Amino acid sequence: MEDELVLKSLKESIKAKERFFIKKNISRLRDSAEVIAEAFKAGGKLMIVGNGGSAADAQHIAAEFVNRFEIERPPLPALALTTDTSVITSIGNDYGVDTIFSKQVKALGREGDVLLAISTSGTSPNVVQAVGEAKKLGIKTIALVGRGGGDLIEKADMVLNVEANSTPRIQEVHITVCHILCELVDYILFQKVSK
Asked: Whole-structure pTM over 0.90, yes or no?
């Protein structure tokens, strides 16, 4: 029974990834990488938001840009707005959890930056508000979503939607997308690929 469970999960994961990449998302992924690379070239930064597993992905991807992904290159300015517990709990306590990201975007974001909003549902109020605040500031927004995209499908400048209902399968596609974004940005900026 355990072996069947493993194979079932693996097949579902592969199917979700195939569906995502075959349905016009390769060009959207490339366009998203170009937007991020252009921001870095112009002195801007990438801010990343998400809740739960998406918060972990935000931190993971920020680290890939700041440290390195697969090639040796200069650090790139990316930050996860999910990490400063004093800021997050202060905002959450004083203004409510729905504003924990939008207030940080307002404080730290500038025109020319990019916001990557990760949400399996596309409906997380704090992520949706962060996108709204970013747009007011002239910050380009990329939404990495699932389940039809929720509110973010209409609000973000660019949308990468995983057409799946299972949260684990959506998250598995999200981390694959994020790793490919890192690789594409590195290639666009440095014309190098890992060996």
From this structure: yes
Q: Give pLDDT < 70 ranges for the chain.
A: 193-195
What the block records as the tokens of 16 is 């979700």
Residue 48 belongs to a domain: yes
Do the domain assignments include residue 195?
A: no
Residue 22 in domain = yes
Question: What would the two tokens of residue 17 be?
Answer: 């990834």
CATH number of the domain residue 46 falls in: 3.40.50.10490
